[in-house]
Amino acid sequence: MPKSASDKRHFIVAGVLVAISTVLMDILLKAAMPLPLQASIESLTIDALIGWHLTLIAFLFSLIVVFMLYSIVIFRKREDDDSEGEHFEGNSTLEIVWTVIPLIFVVAFSFYGVNALAQVIRSEPNELEVTAVGFQWSWRFEYPNGIISQELVLPINQRALVTLHSEDVLHSFWVPEMRVKQDLVPGYDTHIRFTPILLGDFKVRCAELCGRSHWSMESPVRIVEQAEYDQWVTEQLAAQNPAVVQADSSQQ
Fold first, then answer.
1. CATH for 128-241?
2. To 5 degrees, how large is the angle CA 223–CA 35–CA 129?
3. What's the CA gap between 217 and 138, in Å, rounded?
4. Which of 31, 200, 207, 236 could form a disulfide with 174 if both were Cys (CB 3.0 to 4.6 A apart)?
5. Nearest CA to 55 among 29, 32, 16, 35?
6. Displacement of CA 192 from its chain's centroid (Å)
7. What does each C-alpha distance from 172 to 39, 160, 218 come to in angstroms?
């Protein structure tokens, strides 16, 4: 290996090592931090953004550490070498490159992030509206047809608009498998949207420290087929308004 620090072969070797390290670090980071199931359309968008950020982190880590270790090993002082180190001036081209490239990354990721946010919060026609009421230390879900439930039941592939209301302190609505999360602010209604794409049972958790029993503030979330959801609505209406259901039956 040439001794001159300005020899391009050093940059080629270090560049290859950076590429190898980036791939290995990217695999390691994503294996060490597995994400929950992808249960909503929004989770696909958010996970892609997280994945690209982890790749960028792996690259920046490798870029710094590999060049540092390479320099320590290759250009270390040998026992039989008493010569002065090579003198060299600053490199204007290199300074421009390491200023412009990070700027490009920042702009690109800013655009990507704004676009991802726009996809997550977009509104659609015929959204299923539900109000989630948080209070110390439980949840209540109110549907437009008068149904009040302790569990959140939603049909699959139907975009939901959840209005969030707090009765006391700050809370935070979070279903990890859906990825989206939004604070509940006392005196002010907030909103969150997501489209379930996976059938199953999940849990909504409070992700904001809200008092002594914050740890237990969770409620069931069920994602069901449309037919099962319609049946659930009918059963809930019958249970909560038996007089109305009986009147409808007698008229038929």
1. 2.60.40.420
2. 30
3. 5
4. 207
5. 29
6. 14
7. 19, 17, 11
Q: Scanning the structure block, which residue is given the tokens 């437009």?
A: 144
195 dihedral zone (left: phi>0; alpha: psi -120 to 50; beta):
beta
DSSP string, 115-140: HHHHHHH---TTPEEEEEEEETTEEE
Mean pLDDT (the chain) is: 88
Give pLDDT tens digits for 80-138.
777 776 776 777 887 888 889 889 989 999 999 999 999 999 988 889 999 999 999 99
The residue written with tokens 């038996």 in the block is 242
Domain boundaries, the chain: 8-75+92-121, 128-241
Predicted TM-score (pTM) above 0.85: no
Greatest CA separation for the chain = 106
208 contacts 171 by C-beta, under 8 angstroms? yes
pLDDT tens digit string along 200-243?
Answer: 999 999 999 999 999 999 999 999 999 999 999 999 888 877 66
